[in-house]
Amino acid sequence: MPSVFVQGKPVDSYPPLAPEARRGRVRRITEVGEEVLHKPCRDVTEFGPDLAALIDDMFLTMYVAEGAGLAANQVGVGLRLFVYDCPDDDGVRHVGHLVNPVLEPLDPAGRRLLDEQEGCLSVPGAMMAVPRPDRAVAHGLDKHGEPVTVEGTGYFARCLAHETDHLDGQVYLDRLSRRDRADALRQAADRREEVFARRAANVEALSG
User: What is the total count of domains within the chain?
Assistant: First the structure.
């Protein structure tokens, strides 16, 4: 079994950080409550250097924030696009980006829901249990407009579902009960300074 899949295809070796990150600049991550996170994103219609530069910035921003995925509206851009560098439950690493992604509907009879911890870079420091299907298949395009299909299980399936939710204007708090949502926001308030201090230190480390 290959240990790394890039854009849904197995590769023999891959660096610790996606090469895109070396070209990127760090952008501010939007936080829950900001309008861009709570409305559906527009389809990407222009493929070119601006889109490639946005993807580069999103990879670096994701690594600085120690995330497994990052949607474009998390850097304030309301386009249907996300990047990811995420392991599945078997330790296989998945790296890539997906433009205009659509999750394939799964047969309810054949899917299992996993109720596991989930966090979000736009709710810094909070972790809550969120039920998600144990498998996901996403279809979309790459930055050149070529079709891509990505399949994930376990934690990577969770990542694909979480990032697609973002593009639909939904954060994971929207899937929680009122009490759990309040708990998550309390966690974020308590840990926010610590999270931002780590991000600042990572900016120094990654740009040094």
Answer: 1
